[in-house]
Design a protein that fits this description.
The complex is a heterodimer of chains A (306) and B (334).
Chain A (H helix, E strand, L loop, with lengths): L6 H18 L6 H17 L41 E4 L5 H10 L38 H15 L6 E6 L6 H12 L5 E7 L2 E2 L2 E2 H4 L5 H7 L3 E6 L3 H9 L7 E6 L24 H15 L7
Parallel strand pairs in A: 1-2, 2-3, 3-7, 6-7
Antiparallel strand pairs in A: 4-5
Helix pairs in contact in A: 1-2, 1-3, 1-9, 2-3, 2-8, 4-5
Chain B lengths: L3 E3 L1 H10 L5 E5 L9 H6 L4 E3 L4 H13 L3 E7 L8 H9 L6 E5 L16 H6 L5 E4 L3 H12 L5 E5 L3 E3 L11 E5 L4 E6 L2 H14 L4 E6 L1 E3 L3 H10 L3 E9 L4 H11 L6 E6 L9 H7 L4 H12 L7 H13 L8
Parallel strand pairs in B: 2-3, 2-4, 4-5, 5-7, 6-7, 10-11, 10-13, 13-14
Antiparallel strand pairs in B: 1-8, 6-12, 9-11
Helix pairs in contact in B: 1-6, 3-4, 7-11, 7-12
The chains are: A alpha/beta (306), B alpha/beta (334).
């Protein structure tokens, strides 16, 4: 599904929408929009072969967790189109990027902007940490590290089914610290899952700060290649580079694209807070209004009214 | 003699899974230890070797389920919840994936010690929402486990007995049922897993000593047939004794305690099993004796329970053991 807008334009709109939300709600996972906007814009606008959303454009309220008595339970996967042989399956791994995911769904026409007003409201499915029932999600990835294994299982099953669609995971680099990621790589390589690919937002950030200060994990590309996957490193703000990377041949291997990004890309004013960027909240009204003025200017919009 | 069945899981799984190509046999590097090596050799296309990587195995199984397959996970019980607990919840239990977890070496049925002995698996599994929990107690139950587990609309954890397994019952396991093995009025004796065989050994001696025992065998720990137990509980005179191959906290005994308190019943309860302790490596006979949940320990506990010496010695039990076991096929006839 090709949107009329260019992916670059969608990326800018994602940043604007997340920023607006952050100012209005006195905080947000803002830096994640800076780092991942191009990747998510590109995935939904170009890279993923997915059908139209099967879900209401304004998300339904939370309708209970899965249980034997809850017959109406639905995940948020339908926002990524129907599940079928030829379509890609998309797993959104870093659940705390949920706000950026919702903003993306809005900018590519899969969700109504009004859906975002339900964000983090009691009784809403548009949760702050993406749940299975949140738009665009199909599983709980709030526990980081399970996304790639799950996608590998899906990809294995799809190979057995001789399905043509691929399975894609959007990941963040912090979760590479989890041992399970490396277990998943071992298995994906051993079973030659070349219908599996991932793009990793390498913003080098985690909750406590810069990964280099918390637990440096060294040369990730070298490690992943040593595990036997095809690993390519690109500038994560260069959409052309993404297009090229996706074209790389990876017969009998999963493809992992490391998208090196800047956690304050497009909002340079945020650099002042570096490396405390995991969740941006304001300590004072002064800070909030100053950031509003400065970043609005960078994003080419009027200051947000709040 | 009691019939001893060799590797009932091996042929049961093979017969069942080979008829449904949506079933995948996952193994965490314990393929022959979980008696699925023959299946692997004969049906390699339905076998997925997951190596020693349980966290991945749980989430990978979730993914297989999301693409239309039914994973049967094979490893030791301990390895299905201790290390990959987070994955068990997020990838299997929460989304109610139809994944069948076959946990081998329940409780102290392994000489490999603490790291291999699943002694708190039932307490863990039964508190997880959406999870069904089954424990097999003989060869017949092992023979029915694949079909019964696969009928469950959601995830299932099964305690599986391997190797030489006695046949105690002549009717298949049916989820939700409770087996009544003997009727009586004084003591309600509730056992599960390998403890049922131990209890059967002690029972005839106890009956000879004048104790009237209502004996139940429980295989479905969740969902538990509360109604049936409640009915039987109410009518028993002296109280209830549970015996399980598990910690006495969180498993069968606790389950019964919950029912007693929920309904405000005034019944004494004695729980036999591992009493808030880890175990060490040894044979099943040695460990059940050492930790106080073999046939003789049951008799001594009943003496304490009723405050009366029964003058039964361990050697008396040895004498009746074979005869008693010999008559077990009639155990269910009531």
């Amino acid at each position: 599904m090709q949107n009329k807008l260019k992916s670059e334009e969608i990326a800018l709109r994602i940043r604007r929408r997340v920023f607006e939300h952050c100012i209005k709600n006195n905080g947000a996972y803002l830096s994640q929009a800076c780092s991942s906007a191009e990747q998510l814009a590109w995935l939904y606008n170009e890279a993923l072969n997915i059908g139209d959303s099967t879900m209401p454009s304004i998300p339904e309220n939370f309708s209970g967790v899965p249980s034997i008595d809850n017959k109406n339970y639905k995940t948020g996967a339908g926002y990524n189109g129907p599940i079928s042989n030829e379509y890609d399956r998309f797993i959104f791994a870093p659940a705390h990027y949920a706000l950026v995911a919702y903003a993306t769904l809005i900018e590519v026409g899969r969700m109504d902007p009004a859906g975002l007003s339900m964000f983090n409201k009691d009784g809403s499915s548009v949760e702050i940490i993406g749940a299975e029932h949140s738009p665009g999600m199909e599983m709980h990835n709030g526990t980081l590290g399970i996304g790639l294994s799950t996608a590998a299982g899906i990809a294995y099953g799809r190979k057995l089914n001789k399905e043509t669609g691929e399975t894609c995971v959007f990941m963040s680099d912090g979760e590479l610290q989890e041992g399970q990621i490396w277990e998943a790589l071992q298995v994906s390589v051993y079973y030659k899952l070349d219908n599996l690919w991932a793009i990793v937002d390498v913003n080098e950030q985690q909750v406590d700060g810069a990964m280099s200060d918390v637990l440096d994990i060294g040369d990730v590309q070298k490690k992943i290649n040593a595990f036997g996957a095809k690993c390519i490193e690109i500038d994560g703000h260069d959409i052309d580079a993404m297009r090229q990377a996706k074209k790389e041949k990876h017969k009998d291997q999963p493809l992992i694209i490391l998208a090196r990004t800047c956690p304050y890309k497009g909002m340079n004013y945020l650099k002042k807070r570096f490396p405390r960027l995991h969740y941006v909240r304001f300590k004072s009204e002064e800070e909030r209004s100053k950031m509003n003025l400065e970043i609005s200017k960078e994003l080419g919009i009027e200051p947000i009214e709040y | 003699m009691i019939e001893i069945v060799n590797k009932p899981y091996s042929y049961t799984f093979k017969n069942y899974a080979s008829k449904n190509d949506k079933i995948l046999c996952l193994s965490g590097d314990l393929t022959s230890s979980c008696e699925v090596d023959q299946f692997r050799d004969e049906f390699p296309n339905q076998f997925v070797s997951m190596g020693m990587a349980e966290q991945n195995m749980m989430s990978f199984a979730g993914g297989l389920s999301m693409s239309g397959y039914i994973p049967f996970i094979h490893t030791f019980g301990v390895f299905t919840y201790r290390r990959p607990y987070d994955q068990l919840l997020a990838s299997i239990a929460y989304p109610r994936r139809k994944i069948r977890i076959m946990g081998f070496l329940p409780g102290i049925t392994t000489p490999a010690g603490m790291t291999h002995q699943a002694i708190e698996d039932i307490s863990v599994m039964r508190t997880i929402p959406n999870m069904t929990v089954i424990e097999t107690g003989d060869a017949t139950e092992v023979e029915s486990i694949c079909e019964q587990a696969n009928n469950v609309d959601g995830p299932v954890y099964c305690r599986i007995l391997r190797g030489s397994v006695p046949r105690l019952f002549d009717t298949p396991l049916k989820i939700g049922d409770i087996r009544v093995l003997n009727s009586g009025t004084d003591i309600l004796l509730i056992t599960s897993g390998i403890c049922t065989e131990e209890a059967l050994r002690a029972r005839s001696v106890l009956i000879d000593a004048g104790i009237s025992i209502l004996h139940l065998h429980v295989h479905t720990l969740k969902p538990f047939n509360e109604e049936k137990i409640l009915d039987l509980l109410t009518n028993v005179k002296l109280g209830v004794i549970t015996m399980e191959n598990h910690l006495v906290n969180g498993g069968l005994g606790t389950l019964i305690a919950e029912i007693i308190s929920k309904h405000g019943l005034s019944k004494k309860l004695m729980k036999l099993g591992l009493n808030d302790t880890f175990a060490h490596g040894g044979s099943k006979q040695y460990l059940t004796k050492y930790y106080g949940f073999d046939a003789y320990a049951l008799i001594k506990s009943i003496e304490k329970f009723i405050g009366q010496a029964l003058n039964i010695e361990e050697k008396d039990l040895e004498k009746v053991r074979i005869e008693n076991v010999h008559s077990l096929s009639k155990a269910e006839a009531l």
